[in-house]
Amino acid sequence: MRKWTLALISATMVMGLAACGSSNDNKEQNSANTGNQAAGNNAAAANAGDSTNSSSTESVKLRIYAQYADEDTKGPYDYAVAELKKAMPNVELELDVQAQDDGQKLKTYAATGNLPDIFQAGLDIISTFKKSGNILELDKYADDFKAKIQPSAMNTLVTDDGHIYAFPYAGNEVAMLFYNKELFAANNVKVPTTYDEMMAAVNAFNAKGITPLALFAKEKWPTVALYDMFASRNDPAGITKLDKGEAKASDPEYKTAAEEIVKLVKAGMLPKGATNLNYDQAAALFHEGKAAMFLNGQWEIDASTKALGEKLGYMYVPAADAAAYESSKLTFSGGGGPGGYAVNPQTKDPELAAKVAAFISLKYAEFKFTQRGTPMVATKVDAPVVNKFPPVMEQLSKDIPSMKTTAFSWGLSNPKFKAAIEDAAQSLMTGGYSPDDFVSDVDAAISSK
User: Fold this and answer.
1) CATH for 287
2) Which residue range forms the structural domain that includes residue 223?
3) Which of 13, 291, 300, 311 could join 285 via S-S bond, C-beta 3.0 to 4.6 A?
4) What sections of the sequence does the record tag as coiled-coil (predicted)?
């Protein structure tokens, strides 16, 4: 059963750590000793791998540090290596299995001049290694790869400084509003597109003894996602603008989101005691047909499809009016960040290593898309799908190229704001916390950045 902690791991996989499924949360690291840098770089040149010029047919061995722990990581890696053997038969990869240690082993490699030629890196490793000179800037090797990136996933390729340091395979992940089509049809309830229609749905389902929206609000990230969904109807940046200090919770578009949520909560949108509800309890309400809607990440599609089959659908988030709904429907709460396969700047042939890193990333994504049945990849895939997407995933795959994303709460950069928005959003779900309280608490954190 997928829950928020696994989503975090999955989001962290986007940042270069293991991602095995769902429950949802992410990570950090520490810099290597720069005193060893000069000696380390010299040693790295000797140990980086037996590379030759990329145009050569001479046998080349490259050491790669990659995830290889379970079927979610072994399958795509083995597929990518097999495809590499067809495309570049002279290149042999020597696998160094990535430790699940928040990057400590990799940082030790960097400090001792023993970095592999190619290694998986998330934003945290990228940021650390940029400072110590242990990661290659890939801009001049990335033209072909850049052309294959999903337009909506450019944030997984280019860092805030405008450069490329890793070739991504994992795309953005998103929070979604799932719904039971049968419950809506049987009770003659319109799938809401506006706040008024959402209120009408809440009232109609309550009158039938059906929970309108199951939310595991004991965990804070889903409550932030719900707030972000409403805020991003007014400003597509959603909570990311608050995180960066570019907007305040007191701004009309952000305060309105809190006001609309409070109205719906007071009208009975959530189950009683929602802030004490865990994933299993909330999911059971939805899977057993006792709740009409459910908020979770796209990783929920598998479990809910098994429970509901063709009854499962997902809706675009309601907005103030029809025009706002249409203009914001493809803005999804969630996102990702730069990460993927990076290159050691001391490798013997940087051009070849970059070419191989890009190829492995593309084929890793291709396997996930065609054989694992997930469209949540960073790059476009032209190969035919082996395992057909469930209907809801098929719909999502069509939205991905044009979608815009905001952020998950664990991806926020301002720790004070993160703590404040998590507490405040969770409090909104009680009905006893006013929009003014929300504004006051969140703005205090923003101003103290």
Assistant:
1) 3.40.190.10
2) 174-334+406-447
3) 291
4) none
DSSP classification of residue 369: H
DSSP string, 26-67: --------GGGHHHHHHHHHHHSEE---TT--S-EEEEEEE-
Report the C-alpha gap between 71 and 303 in whole angstroms. Answer: 18
Indicate the pairing of strand 334-335 with strand 173-180.
antiparallel
374 pLDDT above the threshold of 60: yes
- Among 38, 65, 34, residue whose Cα is nearest residue 166: 65
365 pLDDT higher than 70: yes
pTM for this entry: 0.81
Say whether both 240 and 360 belong to one domain: no
| Euclidean distance between CA atoms 238 and 222, whole angstroms | 15
Give the total number of structural domains in the chain: 2
Residue the block writes with tokens 């009208």: 267
- Same domain for 317 and 369, yes or no, is no
Q: How many CA atoms lie within 13 A of 156 on its CB side?
A: 33
Q: Which amino acid is at 64?
A: I
User: Quick check: is 412 in a domain?
Assistant: yes
